[in-house]
Design brief:
The complex is a heterodimer of chains A (300) and B (278). Chain A has 300 residues and is mostly helical. Chain A is 78% helix and 0% strand. In chain A, helix 2 (14-40) runs antiparallel to helix 13. Chain B has 11 helices and no strands. Chain B is globular and about 75 Å long. The chains are: A mainly alpha (300), B mainly alpha (278). Chains A and B meet through helix 2, helix 4, helix 5, helix 6 and helix 7 of A and helix 1, helix 2, helix 3, helix 4 and helix 6 of B.
Amino acid sequence: MNGALRGVPGRPVPWLRRAILVGICGLFLVPIVSMLWFTFRLQGGGIGIDHWAALFNPENERAYRNLVAGILNSLLLAVLTVAIVWALFLPTIVLVHLRFPRLARVFELLTVLPIAIPAIVLVVGLAPLYRGIVGVFGGGIWTLAFAYGVLVLPFAYRAIASDLQGMHAATLAEAARSLGASWFTVLVRVIAPGLRPGLTSATLITAAVVLGEFTVSSLLNRVTMQVALVEVSKSDPYAAVITSLLSLVIVFALLFLFASFDSRLGLRGRMERRRPGRAAPHASQHRRAKNEEKEVSTDG
Amino acid sequence: MKWLGLAPFALYVLLFLGLPTVLAIGTGFFDADGRPTLSNLAVLLEPNIQQTFWASLWVSALTAVLGAVLGALTCYALLGARPGGALRRAVDAAASVLAQFGGVMLAFAFIATIGIQGVITVLLREQFGVDIFASGVWLYQLPGLILPYLYFQVPLMVIVFLPAMLGLRREWAEATASLGGGSLTYWVRVAGPILAPSFLGSLLLLFANAFSSYATAAALISQGAQIVPLQIRAALIAETGASRANTAGALALGMLLVMLVVMLAYSALQRRAARWQA
């Protein structure tokens, strides 16, 4: 088996591959393991669960009231921002794709702007804007969702648009329209089901970005989870580290589980297999998926 | 009528992206009393502000280069992994968490690891007699940003560069092999040049990411303003009144100019990279 000895061309050498993965994963685990160890260390030396017990002790409720409020605010903002993505971004992205294809370039450029304009720059202009908003709508935390929508626009657009191109949305919409479907029916019953994987990942990324957001909320003086964490860390670093560790692990687990769920349903895989041996001309996503499939078949 | 469907989105983007951007840049051209002036821009010429810009630039450049190299190595190692397999899913999820959710929490991770009472700091001091802070506590200074920044730069590289890596076609490797080229020839003469524009593009994206990053630095550094975003913080929350908001506007303009150059270079590289993705 000369081939096995020399390896598959273009594929990493197994030992090198393993060495890199073990090395990088090891390095990236050091801070996470350190966080865990840190929370078990007691002030006078020794090991115990005192810091964890203190955080979850109902008697300390007052001390962590701000943190709880921040977490609840962040969860509310995540829900509201996801609503903006679903109700405003999704229909607009589909509309541009189907009815204004000539605007697609400009639209894509527009969705990159929130990356090109750093949040710390945006907040300089958001500060006077929000002084006006507070005057009209009051100081409720929910108004922050409008600013967050802009921050997640690039991620939401990318996730939704790549699926839209992969599913031949224009052809499907035309077929549905010619059978008498309204645009609303096309969006909800034809396009949306095909966008399921993209919408799922857009939703997850939106939630992750909003829950992790600090720049805008802290400089606009709103109490979100991250703002409260920094506040708590000044007096009680253990509470801050425990909360950070828990949220990092929980969000990781959620993303991991959703990805598993998605791949078990095999939506992408199934769509590929329906068109055997024909590369979709404009969808790089498709070719990529196909390449990956080929790699699977040679794996064993 | 046809255009009405775009109106809500257009209105939203104008209000919450267009208007804040114009306001941010605009405040730099007015004085505290609302009269137009160019004097705020002089702040960009002050030695200590220029020093912060240099600090921002080199921290971004250094973490972008290191992050890109380590991230590309990770992508290479992931080439053999089954798509949808547990390894790929775990790496994808971890990369998202660290690059898009981490921020403030990454600062705490490093305080717990290499802070003054950090686990690694204490371990090295008590077990090996090594004091990593022998020449001063650098974690809460500029050099302290490098490790936490790498902790989100490498994952971002994996997110943006892995698709390009997976786009390499088997046929190219097989053609190289059938013409007698080895693995080294393939990577240096075939895959390398094809990936180069994507790699440089990702590198620029990482640079932009570090340059605009605020949360990790804000949580780690509470005293002083060693990078530009922290200067903007100092200007925005200054007690001295509105005049500093105009300084923030001038600093924002300076940041935007840097970002403009980076993004223009990025889009040029993207066009070049697209040649192999059609």
